[in-house]
Design brief:
The chain has three helices and 62 strands. By secondary structure, the chain is mainly β. The strands form nine sheets. The protein has a 26-stranded antiparallel β-barrel. The N terminus and C terminus are likely disordered. Keywords: Signal. This is Alpha-galactosidase NEW3 domain-containing protein.
Length: 909
């Protein structure tokens, strides 16, 4: 056995030297004085739309005792968990624990965006919270549609400009490149060879196609629109008839709620331990940050023992108020798992006041709680948590509270003071307890101090009864090199109750660790060395304290797609009763690596590294020895239709006869056309397949269920008129403006004969009214500005006065260089642009005679015509004219387009 140990030491030493010599350093996540480390499996998780995001957290407990941690998550709005993680985490001493979880992104999440997920660990003994982030990126999903706002267009004889509005909307979650091409006997302003544009997710655009009514090659009035993206082409047909003065919004008064229905089958091949259940959830968005969501998980259908999976909740939330009923699951010095209700109030400072009541599922207990999170100022916070617990099973009625005042100047400059009290009645005995503590983090130039202390009296009610924790560190140096002195003590006092009828057992223990640490880091790697004196003890009749020294080296490396962390420790310790057992030297190592889609987790321990190892050897006479190696591989196929994760874990402990070799595989299939997905998970021990085989299935389907709630839709009317006396009122003798076209949120309107424009059953939101597009109103323009904002939160009627304007008139003239060719090209439908000093753009178009005009304000303008619409055989002599309308009311310009003489190349023989 000694020979095997020496070989293991030699292999680990070579392994350590290899990584120290080949890797450069990086800064690792600063855990402060916490004797555990956390590592997220994937820094970024890419998932398909509608797919859950799989990730896991590995917690490595480097302390000398078991750790009980609080686990929480901060998710983006509308996101949730497939299965709620347990808020209480227990990690054995010297071991690591991997916690897998699945997150369901919101249906409104965009593709190609990194959404941050924050994982929050709280050590209730120190009061320290540690946060770690990773990102979830929704893969691109190509979903788009194209439509004509009006497929029929009527062009009146007096119109100088008419147009189609082609709306293209990107309903996917990626940026899409679109190409538009046209086919028609009409003369169109959009080149038939195609035009391109890019749309962001959730965005839409309107392509304006100008139509010249008196310029066509045949009698047909049909326009074909070809919209192409991602090898898919949509054909739309428009007929030229008229432009409407009314926009008809929603045809239905009711909305719909997306509901996800998912079936789970667990351990399907095991008759006595298999169970099945359904998970149903939905979210209804009212707008203005108001939503109603629910979740219902049915109880399991089990062939053997009853396994409870029941979970249900209904929650309404807004900016200032939240209320929820149903299942509750949280951890705060007490494990809450039951059903009840909670109410949360918020103010402008984002302070929160919460009341909740819970009836336990498994324990026969009832809990009434209060939580106050008061942000007194930007740097000062006062929080209170209180619980009243009625435990019928233990016949205990107890109350405890925790108060914390925290002042935070910066991340590295903060101080907090905590205190609390409790009262518990068991049978006829009333016991009182208290707790108190502090935490200080202070940095001054190159010196940093961290010190925390928490004391819970033996009669303080809850999971931390009798716990005393102290953690202190004084650090010198910079980010590249540090030197630290540290000390940490954990202990639990025995509980002594006054009543002879009360029986309560608690584990009395004490650990002490004190020493020094060196650290070196750069942008890639971090390496640190630690040396400490330690003592460990647990109340025991046979063994005394474990005393000795421990040396530890840490290494983390992170560059590009490669990450690794290594911890190696050597312990020299002894216990008086086992001094002759030749067990003074012990070793342990932990390694984690991830490269692209391949990763490894491994633990190795030889000899008694902890007090409990000596105790195990004393009872079984087996030398402590354990190895644990886990290798995984992830795969996504090119079409993104399935996701595969394969994991192999080999574990071997000295107190087991045979090692275990578990194979786990997860497959994810997606069927986006029917809004469904299937997940298959299998697990088994290669050496004992029949007894360890596990097979799980989940099938998810999304339904759009109509709601009985009426949506809020409103109507608006605009009255356009000539305001001759500039009093903003429609007086006798003034005229309405008919056949005037404007844009409202990129939708084109034309006023009727009474000067009216209507929106009917429109959504409640802001509408931008753009008057710059007016083309057929000579000598008049809107009185105040060129853009209005219409807040449609009720039915609205607006009068829009117009004043007399300054004008720019002009024409486009075609000429031929060939004197023998007298054919004149048609100049109808050519786009002309005017730009003022502010950068505002005004558009006009030529009529059948090549004429155009602008109604403009007092300003300087550049009038220009695109030169790329005529082809190589045409040449524009001057494409930009500058016009000064500050001193004159009217200006005329002329664009000359020359058809060039054809060049003939003659080769000499």
């Amino acid at each position: 056995m000694i020979q095997n140990r020496n070989i293991s030491i030699f292999i680990i030493s070579c392994f350590l030297c290899l990584f120290l010599s080949k890797n450069e350093a990086m800064g690792q996540f600063d855990m402060g004085m916490e004797n555990y480390s956390i590592q997220v499996l994937n820094d970024t998780v890419a998932v398909k739309p509608g797919q859950f995001a799989f990730n896991s957290i590995t917690i490595n407990n480097t302390s000398d005792q078991d750790l009980v941690l609080g686990l929480g998550f901060s998710l983006p709005v509308g996101w949730g968990f497939v299965t709620n993680p347990d808020p209480k985490v227990v990690v054995k001493r010297g071991e690591f624990l991997s916690i897998p979880f699945r997150i369901a992104p919101s249906r409104a999440a965009l593709g190609d965006v990194n959404y941050p997920i924050t994982i929050i660990f709280q050590n209730p003994m120190t009061g320290k919270e540690i946060k770690q982030n990773f990102f979830v990126r929704i893969n691109n999903n190509t979903v788009w549609n194209a439509s004509l706002l009006s497929s029929n267009l009527l062009i009146e004889p007096t119109d100088s400009l008419s147009k189609f509005e082609l709306r293209v909307k990107n309903n996917g979650n990626k940026r899409e490149l679109f190409e538009i091409s046209l086919r028609s006997d009409l003369r169109l302003s959009l080149p038939s060879t195609g035009t391109q544009f890019i749309l962001w997710p959730g965005k839409d655009t309107t392509v304006t196609v100008f139509v010249a009514s008196r310029s066509k090659l045949a009698n047909t009035n049909t326009v074909l629109f070809f919209v192409k993206a991602q090898k898919e082409t949509v054909l739309l047909t428009g007929n030229v008839y008229f432009t409407s003065d009314t926009f008809q919004g929603k045809t239905s008064r009711f909305g719909s709620m997306p509901i996800d229905v998912e079936y789970f089958g667990v351990n399907m091949f095991k008759r006595n331990s298999s169970y099945n259940y359904f998970d149903i959830s939905g979210n209804y968005d009212y707008g203005k940050n108001r939503s109603l969501n629910f979740r219902l998980r049915t109880n399991s259908v089990n062939l053997g023992d009853i396994f409870s999976t029941q979970f249900y909740s209904l929650r309404y939330s807004s900016d200032r108020f939240e209320v929820g009923v149903g299942s509750q699951n949280r951890f705060l010095n007490y494990q809450i798992n039951g059903y009840g209700a909670n109410v949360v109030f918020k103010n402008k400072k984002q302070s929160e006041f919460e009341l909740y009541g819970v009836k336990g599922y498994q324990k026969d207990d009832q809990v009434l709680g209060l939580r106050i999170d008061n942000n007194i100022s930007e740097s000062l916070n006062l929080s209170t948590n209180a619980m009243l617990i009625d435990d019928k099973k233990k016949d205990v009625l107890a109350f405890f509270s925790l108060h914390k005042l925290e002042k935070k100047s910066t991340v590295n400059d903060q101080i907090s003071v905590s205190g609390g009290y409790s009262a518990g009645k068991h049978i006829d005995t009333l016991n009182y307890g208290y707790m108190g503590g502090y935490r200080i983090e202070k940095r001054y130039n190159l010196v940093r101090l961290q010190s925390s202390y928490q004391y819970y009296s033996p009669l303080y009610y809850g999971l931390l009864r009798g716990v005393i924790h102290g953690s202190h560190e004084l650090r010198f140096g910079t980010k590249k090199a540090t030197f630290s002195l540290f000390s940490q003590t954990n202990s639990r006092q025995p509980v002594q109750l006054n009543s002879e009828n009360v029986s309560f057992s608690s584990l009395n223990y004490k650990t002490f660790d004190s020493g020094l640490r060196f650290g070196f880091a750069n942008q890639v790697n971090n390496i640190s060395f630690e040396f400490s004196y330690l003592e460990q003890y647990q109340q025991n009749e046979d063994l005394s304290k474990m005393k000795g020294y421990r040396s530890t080296v840490y290494l983390t490396s992170n560059k590009a797609k490669f990450f690794q962390t290594l911890r190696f420790s050597y312990t020299q310790a002894s216990i008086k009763e086992l001094a002759d057992s030749n067990m003074n030297n012990s070793y342990s190592a932990y390694y984690q690596m991830k490269y692209k889609n391949i990763g490894v987790n491994a633990n190795y321990a030889f000899g008694p590294n902890y007090y409990f190892d000596y105790l195990s050897y004393y009872k079984s006479n087996v030398l402590p020895n354990s190895q644990n190696v886990s290798v995984f591989y992830e795969l996504n196929n090119k079409s993104k239709t399935f996701y595969n994760r394969l994991n192999l874990t080999v574990s071997n402990r000295s107190n087991f006869e045979h090692p275990s070799m578990y194979v786990r595989n997860e497959l994810y299939f997606e069927m986006p056309k029917i809004k469904s997905r299937i997940t298959l998970f299998s697990s088994f021990d290669i050496k004992d397949v029949s007894n360890t085989m596990s097979f799980n299935v989940s099938v998810k389907k999304t339904l759009d269920v109509p709601m009985i709630f009426k949506q809020k839709y409103y109507s608006a009317s605009l009255f356009l008129f000539k305001d001759l006396n500039n009093n903003d009122l429609f007086d006798n003798g003034e005229e309405p403006l008919s056949n005037v076209n404007i844009k409202i949120n990129d939708i084109t309107f034309k006023s009727n004969s009474k000067g009216m424009i209507f929106l009917k059953n429109a959504e409640e939101k802001q509408y931008i009214i753009d008057y710059k597009v007016i083309q057929n109103l000579k000598g008049w323009m809107v009185k105040d500005g060129t853009v209005d904002t219409l807040n449609l939160d009720r039915n609205v009627s607006l009068g829009v006065p117009f004043k007399q304007s300054r004008m720019v008139a002009g024409r486009v003239k075609f000429e031929n260089e060939n004197t023998y060719n007298n054919k004149i090209e048609a100049a109808n439908g050519i786009l002309i642009i005017a730009i003022n000093k502010k950068g505002e753009i005004f558009k006009s178009s030529t009529n059948s005679k090549g004429e155009f005009y602008f109604n403009l304000n007092k300003d300087f303008y550049n009038i220009q015509m695109p030169t790329n619409i005529f082809g190589e055989e045409y040449h524009v002599e001057k494409s930009i004219f500058s016009v000064d309308l500050t001193n004159e009311n009217y200006s005329e310009i002329e664009f000359k387009v020359v058809k060039q003489r054809r060049k003939i190349n003659i080769r000499k023989q």
